[in-house]
Amino acid sequence: QVTLVESGGGLVQPGGSLRLSCQVSGSSFSRYTLAWFRQAPGKEREFVVVSRRYGSSTHYADSVQGRFTISRTNAENTVNLLMNSLKPEDTAVYYCAAGSGVILSSVRSGDAYDYWGQGTQVTVSA
Length: 126
What we know:
This protein is mainly beta. Helix content is about 0%, strand content about 45%. Strands 2, 4, 5, 6, 9, 10 and 11 form a 7-stranded mixed β-sheet that branches. Strands 1-3-8-7 form a 4-stranded antiparallel β-sheet, with no helix packed on it.
């Protein structure tokens, strides 16, 4: 069984930064594809970024490319999301997800992931 616990959300002004963390329990951390998704009020869940298993590659949504950075710390079983130049439209609940058999063509689909965290709220507002 794998559990994911996000932290680091909060309120930030436009243009500010936040760092989210996701602690992943269980063994074989490096073999999991790890992703961040988000869901804004009244909207569907959307893909943000993914780090494929063994850190082989990363892929970003166009809306966050150049502003967000995903990183994995294998020694601590954590995946982090550094968010810079935040905009009001980044406001959402952010979820960490893990999957063991996620193929490249499916990395942006939430259905490809086996485990999810409870989410952490990010609010970007003046």
